[in-house]
Write a structure and sequence with these properties.
Pfam families: HTH_18. One of its GO terms (molecular function) is DNA-binding transcription factor activity. Keywords: DNA-binding, Transcription, Transcription regulation. This is Helix-turn-helix transcriptional regulator. By secondary structure, the chain is of the alpha+beta class. The protein folds into two domains: about 210 residues; about 100 residues, Arc Repressor Mutant, subunit A. About 40% of the residues lie in helices and about 25% in strands. It is built from eleven helices and 14 strands. The strands form three sheets. The chain has a nine-stranded antiparallel sheet, with helices on both faces. A three-stranded mixed sheet has the order 1-6-11. Strand 3 and strand 4 form a beta hairpin.
């Protein structure tokens, strides 16, 4: 295998824990039923996965790799299930250290949506995933008509993207904090996972957009690649002409395709991610608004404040002093 060859894993419909064992066996790592450890000369992978009631799985993955890693979903399982993938844009610690990731946001898809996820080389990836069967969800979905139930019970292929608000992100960070083996509370993964699903129900209920049905796997792969590799650097505005050349389509077609998955054209999505990163830094760091505006390439602090208020409905100063720390 060449140094920068892509590494591909396709569990072919296997249970996730069987797939982790396959992953570990293939790369000389270990899987003990809850924790995955893989360390080679080109990757460092840590994974945790906890299953409840044989139908509800909460997992956490962190991966650094010198090669692109592709996970495939090509074989449809017998059971209909939903997967929620929640990424982090960065983790901020009180000692001032920052670890940046490139996949903030929420992707929800069902088990009939064929897809590839490619994690780019040289960038940290960390995410929480929640996977549950439709039959498990229906035990708790007693109301007859709400958007989440309509979405989950649709067995045609679909995928939805949502931005990650502070309420959901706080649960994601709390799940990650609970990984310490000496202090781990297993039921905590279940309760926080359920809370995230409940918060998503509210988010989906407010979303007027129809869910995205039967997205072509190659289109999905390309647009996730665009998001992860070109929209996570807030110091430089994306150049649509260059992106058009790279992906071999006109700017208008590129924007239409991107919007079909992520709800917004490229620059609108980028600006939303930037203002949400500002929100994240206000909560999780001690940086001043001036420092944040400079780091995120706002023209001045007043520009940051106005964009923030337009997006969230309140000024950024309302958050100062409300720092949240899930890492100490």
């Amino acid at each position: 295998m060449l140094e920068k060859d892509k590494y591909t894993i396709d569990p072919k419909g296997a249970h996730p824990h069987d797939a982790y064992q396959q992953f570990a066996d293939d790369l000389g790592g270990t899987w003990d039923g809850e924790e995955l450890r893989i360390k080679t000369d080109w990757c460092d992978i840590k994974g945790y996965s906890f299953e409840f009631l044989d139908k509800f799985i909460v997992a956490v993955f962190e991966m650094d790799s010198d090669r692109p890693v592709i996970t495939k979903h090509t074989v449809l399982p017998d059971d209909h299930y939903i997967t929620v993938r929640l990424g982090l844009g960065a983790t901020y610690k009180r000692d001032g250290t920052v670890k940046k990731f490139n996949n903030a946001g929420i992707l929800i898809l069902n088990s009939t949506q064929v897809h590839d996820f490619e994690f780019p080389q040289g960038k940290g990836n960390q995410w929480v995933s929640i996977r549950f069967s439709l039959s498990f969800f229906q035990q708790f979905a007693k109301r007859t008509n709400f958007k989440m139930k309509e979405l989950f019970e649709n067995d045609s292929p679909w995928i939805n993207y949502y931005s990650q608000n502070a309420e959901i992100e706080s649960r994601v960070r709390a799940i990650i904090k609970n990984l310490d083996k000496e202090k781990r509370q297993h039921a905590f993964f279940f309760t926080k996972g359920i809370e995230i699903i409940e918060l998503l129900k509210t988010k989906i209920e407010k979303d007027a957009e129809k869910h995205k049905r039967n997205i072509h796997p190659e289109d999905l792969k390309l647009m996730i690649d665009l998001r992860d590799n070109h929209l996570s650097d807030f110091t430089e505005i994306p150049n649509l002409t260059e992106l058009s050349d790279k992906y071999g389509m006109s700017v208008s077609k590129l924007n239409r395709l991107f919007k079909s998955i992520f709800d917004k054209p490229i620059l609108q999505f980028y600006n939303q991610q930037k203002i949400e990163e500002a929100h994240r830094q206000i909560i999780y760091t001690n940086k001043s608004l001036t420092e944040i505006s400079m780091d995120l390439n706002f023209s001045h602090v007043g520009h940051l404040s106005q964009a923030f208020k337009n997006h969230f409905g309140y000024a950024p100063s309302a958050l100062k002093g409300k720092n949240i720390d899930y890492f100490n």
